[in-house]
Amino acid sequence: MRAGFVRDLLLALGAVGLAAILYAVVDDPGIHDLVIKTCIFGIFALSLNLLIGTLGLVAFGHAAFFAAGAYAFGLFMQSPLVRESADPNWAIPAGFAVAVAAATLLAAGIGAICIRAGTIYFSFLTLALQMILYSAILAFVSITGGDQGLTGGFAKPAFLGVDLTRPFHYYLFCVGLLAAVAVIMRQIVESPFGYALRMIRDNPVRAEFLGIAVQLHRWLAFVMAGGLAGIAGVMMSLFVVGAFPEFAYWAMSAEPLFMILLGGSEVFLGPVAGALILQLLNAVVTANTRYYGLVLGVVVLVFVLGLRRGLLDFAWALAARRREAGDGSAQT
User: Fold this and answer.
1) What does the alpha-carbon distance between residue 105 and residue 114 come to, in Å, rounded to a whole number?
2) Which own/partner contact pairs does 280-287 have at CB distance under 8 Å and 24+ positions apart?
3) What is the pLDDT of residues 165-210, one digit of tens each?
């Protein structure tokens, strides 16, 4: 476990270093924004894959926690407590903690309701509760800004030498957060808790027979996934300097599902690869044609009917088959 953690940590630090080199070499704000969005949605998709890939539960309403993180952070940063503070250097870390706590608490409540339902009912219950949150955002105009969202922006005071108003600082902040979340999630997935989740996914009856508290494990995984989605929401709030009701709309929940479909659910970094693929599609297709939905549909068909799995899952399975073929030929 410790050797695996050290390896994952070194790989994460190496990835952050490569991202910093990319920023220095490629002087294109469009590429920098693409990396930032990939980091944000990579965390969002990784959080959902804790449910889909590890636990075997598909949540159609995962954007509720993304929106909760974004709105909680935006409201905190726009509050008089921050705006009238003489020394606001504590504001962003405090707002980050408040927002993640809000998303986690929301996930605890929604999870307690949904986790007892069957697989398909679980999926649609999460969607129904997300749409209730979306309607509440539109209804409480005095708090949320209604359909206009949190307008007016907010200040981003420096903290611990990090100034998020500087593009390079925010870029590294996002890359570093993705690396940190990936390392933490990797330890969770490879821990006894993670193995218990996979056993529940494969055979919940046997897992319960062996003494595993199935409902408790499912609820804890749901709460963790919600808190991690809240982190992605905070990052998006910092990116757009606000929060908007579209963050809680059903279409936002579809995005991490598409990312997992494109990148894969079995290989750990598959959702991050899917986030990169979807952001590249957004950038390339919207720059060259109006028919984004048509192109996305064709790409999804290619993955579903052609590869029959996400890109990294396909590459991993192909490499495994070649290794097996090589071992077989060596033995003969």
Assistant:
1) 14
2) 280/34, 283/30, 283/34
3) 999 999 999 999 999 999 999 999 999 999 999 999 999 999 999 9
Tokens of 218: 């499912």
SS (H, E, C) the chain: CHHHHHHHHHHHHHHHHHHHHHHHHCCCHHHHHHHHHHHHHHHHHHHHHHHHHHHCCCCCCCHHHHHHHHHHHHHHHHCHHHHCCCCHHHHHHHHHHHHHHHHHHHHHHHHHHHCCCCHHHHHHHHHHHHHHHHHHHHHCHHHHCHHHCCCCCCCCCCECCECCCCHHHHHHHHHHHHHHHHHHHHHHHCCHHHHHHHHHHHCHHHHHHCCCCHHHHHHHHHHHHHHHHHHHHHHHHHHHCCCCHHHHCHHHHHHHHHHHHHHCCCCCCHHHHHHHHHHHHHHHHHHHCCCHHHHHHHHHHHHHHHHCCCHHHHHHHHHHHHHHHHHHHHHC
Is the full-model pTM beyond 0.70? yes
Domain 2-331 has CATH 1.10.3470: yes
User: Closest Cα to residue 95, out of 172, 155, 180?
Assistant: 155
Angstrom distance (rounded) from CA 256 to CA 220: 20
User: How many CB atoms neighbour CB 280 within 10 A?
Assistant: 12
